């Protein structure tokens, strides 16, 4: 089995796509007005309109109603990303800090309220832990 993507359901695809294009510095692929994918080397972030949930017959997904998932992206320099994103991010949860498990990280909310963590391994143990991952 191969992990394909994480999908965020929203009522405003354009707003969320624009936000993530700026955060991830990648252009979204838009195969339909109600769906987009931001393809990165290590993962794909999909964004779908709440109308798309009905196509799956799954009426349980609700836009802007998730408080259990953190989207995490490994970056080269957390502090530089923090400075770059200051004008874009409306709600910072955690300014740059080194976590007990050895990652330097920032945590913020996207326009839908989803948590986003940008991190970089900085201790020797954390660097070794991520050494074999792409």
TrEMBL record:
Keyword line: Metal-binding
Entries under InterPro entries matching the protein: Glyas_Bleomycin-R_OHBP_Dase, Glyas_Fos-R_dOase_dom, MMCE/EMCE_epimerase, VOC_core
Coiled-coil region list: none
Pfam entry (one): Glyoxalase
Domain VOC: 2-121
Lineage: superkingdom: Bacteria
UniProt cross-references to Gene3D superfamilies, sorted A to Z: 2,3-Dihydroxybiphenyl 1,2-Dioxygenase, domain 1 (3.10.180.10)
PROSITE patterns noted in UniProt: VOC
SUPFAM superfamilies with a match to the protein in the record: Glyoxalase/Bleomycin resistance protein/Dihydroxybiphenyl dioxygenase
Protein's recorded name: VOC family protein
């Amino acid at each position: 089995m191969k992990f394909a993507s994480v999908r965020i359901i929203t009522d405003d695809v354009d707003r969320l796509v624009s936000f993530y294009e700026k955060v991830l510095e990648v252009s979204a692929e838009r195969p339909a007005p109600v769906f987009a994918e931001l393809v990165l080397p290590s993962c794909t972030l999909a964004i779908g309109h709440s109308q798309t949930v009905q196509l799956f017959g799954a009426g349980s997904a609700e836009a802007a109603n998730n408080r259990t998932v953190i989207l995490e992206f490994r970056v080269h320099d957390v502090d530089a990303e923090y400075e770059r994103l200051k004008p874009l991010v409306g709600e910072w949860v955690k300014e740059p800090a080194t976590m007990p498990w050895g990652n330097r990280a920032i945590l913020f909310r996207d326009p839908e309220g989803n948590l986003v963590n940008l991190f970089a391994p900085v201790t020797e143990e954390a660097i070794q832990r991520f050494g074999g991952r792409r």
